[in-house]
Write a structure and sequence with these properties.
D-amino Acid Aminotransferase, Chain A, domain 1; alpha+beta; Phosphorylase Kinase, domain 1; binds thymidine-5'-phosphate; seven-stranded antiparallel sheet; 2 domains
């Protein structure tokens, strides 16, 4: 397996084609961004943690019959995935009020929600990834009605598995963001990453943030926090 051509450079990853058709080589980067890229820092050690955490989580999801684009981990900072065309939607699932939800609706952070709430954001840098509804998605032809139903079902299933996984390691899953992609045959697959960059994770005993909020809110160093999450997951 060899990587052939750089096809995409994102905020925290680079994607390469490989000599194997339909397989993409992802390289995680030691970079953190906030405010849609306005704040940017190099953080040594972050790439290997997010790659290893994402790989472990995608493997756990596969065990529970939730397929993803993940094929295998190639090295500490690299993984091999199936090629998909990413649907430009950030699908957010919330179990507990926090972040933009708390701000928008004036609901105190930490309030348990009575059911998981799904939100959609349109991945469009020029627009700062706006909050959109299902009619917007339909109008923009980002997904069909049937695909939207499938996306919501998959998001809730991922939520259930992640709640249980994190519960086993004394972590409360507050909320998270996932992305999906389409294979050439139209099949939709869970894609991108699931890591402390894309989830809110609170220690169940102390309520400490074990996620990117440590960086967003400038609460301290993120590497030791991400290491803690990885070590709990690995030793579960
Ligand atoms: P929010 O409260 O800022 O809307 O974030 C909700 C969840 O989605 C939180 O776990 C962080 C994650 N998220 C991302 O992974 N990427 C993003 O660009 C945004 C806005 C949120």
């Amino acid at each position: 397996m060899e990587k052939t051509e750089l096809i995409y450079t994102g905020k925290a990853k680079r994607l390469f084609t490989t000599n194997q058709t339909g397989q993409i080589w992802i390289e995680y980067l030691d970079q953190a961004t906030a405010l849609n890229g306005v704040r940017k820092d190099e953080i040594l050690g972050k790439a290997e943690l997010n790659n290893q955490i994402t790989s472990l989580i995608f493997k756990e999801l596969a065990k529970k019959d939730i397929p993803s684009h993940f094929i295998k981990q190639l090295s500490k900072t690299e993984q091999l995935v199936e090629a998909v065309a990413i649907i430009p939607l950030e699908v957010v699932v919330r179990n507990v009020a926090a972040g933009s939800f708390s701000k928008k609706l004036a609901i105190e952070e930490g309030t348990q929600l009575t059911f998981p709430i799904i939100e959609f954001y349109y991945k469009k840098d020029e627009l700062d990834d706006p909050f959109i509804n299902e009619d917007h998605i339909k109008y923009l032809e980002l997904a069909t009605d049937e695909e939207l139903i499938a996306l919501k079902e998959a998001a809730l299933k991922v939520n259930q598995v992640l709640i249980e996984l994190f519960d086993q390691i004394n972590i409360r899953l507050i909320d998270f963001k996932i992305e999906f992609g389409r294979k050439e045959d139209g099949t939709i697959l869970l894609a991108d990453e699931i890591s402390p960059d894309t989830c809110r994770l609170w220690d169940k005993t102390t309520n400490d943030h074990l996620d990117k909020d440590v960086y967003r809110k400038e609460l301290g160093e993120i590497v030791p926090v991400y290491k803690e999450v990885f070590s709990r997951l690995k030793n579960k």
